[in-house]
Structure of DUF1836 domain-containing protein:
Amino acid sequence: MKKLTDVLNELNLDNQLTPDSIPNIDLYMDQVIQLFEHTFERSTRNEEEKVLTKTMINNYAKGKLLFPIKQKKYSKEHLLLISLIYQLKGTLSINDIKTTLASINEQMDELDLESFYDHFLTVAADNVAHGKKDIEERMSGLSAETEELSHILHITALVHMSNIYRRTAEKLVDQLAEKNELPRV
């Protein structure tokens, strides 16, 4: 089995869609999918996993996770929101993502989404650096009778940590829903 450091490096956790990598023209759906596949292909679990599909984008639009699309073209702001959805969907439900992004979608005319997204990228880079170090430190002391049992112990410990973060994020979403008087499903 691979060393934990090698596994962490293979995850390409620092892969991000940056505002600079988005063209300054509106894109059609197929172009959006190509951009996301190119950006995040090294971050997928396997070659069969799709980063983004037409169905996903249509569901985001129908579910009002995105402000309205104009003439079947997606603006830079749409792509930034889709990127945030991509980051959030691994942990939160679609309803929680909708709640989280509702005020952003409502304030698109007044909001500097690119600046907000740049702040997110800074936090994300910091999280990757600290997260890798934290995982390596926490897992270094965990061992069991065999290599396989140690591996399983690492998996269970990481899943437990993930659950702590997910549950905390869900509580924060609930607080946001209460503050904005949004219905909870």
About this structure: The first strand starts at residue 27 and ends at 28. The chain has a mean pLDDT of 92. The CA atoms of residues 95 and 185 lie 7 Å apart. Strands lie at 27-28, 73-74.
